[in-house]
Write a structure and sequence with these properties.
Number of helices: 0
Helix content: under 10%
Number of strands: 7
CATH architecture: Sandwich
Radius of gyration: 11 Å
Strand order of the largest sheet: 2-1-7-6-5-3-4
Order of helices and strands: EEEEEEE
Structural class: mainly beta
Number of domains: 1
CATH superfamily: F0F1 ATP synthase delta/epsilon subunit, N-terminal
Strand content: over 45%
CATH class: Mainly Beta
Shape: globular
Length: 81
């Protein structure tokens, strides 16, 4: 079983599903999140790349927006601002 990922904005849910990896750009550089990752909270920008268990990849572009990522016990929530 993979990680539960949810991407939300103030107006809608952008993505909800399971993933085996997630790649984001934080203020200190590119960060890959894998299963059993340590707790994390960070500001992100740029692209969000999600790799699902079936091998599909989803890429979401934040463009000029920023997001807040929270990783806690196999659950990842990204709030797009």
């Amino acid at each position: 079983m993979g990680m539960k990922v949810k991407i939300v904005s103030p107006s809608k849910k952008i993505f909800e599903g399971e993933a085996v990896s997630l790649l984001v750009n934080t203020e200190v550089g590119e960060t890959e999140i894998l299963e059993k990752h340590a707790k994390l909270m960070a500001i992100i920008k740029g692209k969000i790349k999600i790799k699902e268990q079936n091998g599909n990849e989803n890429i979401f572009e934040l463009k000029d927006k920023k997001g807040l990522i929270q990783v806690d016990n196999q659950e990842i929530t990204i709030f797009v601002m």
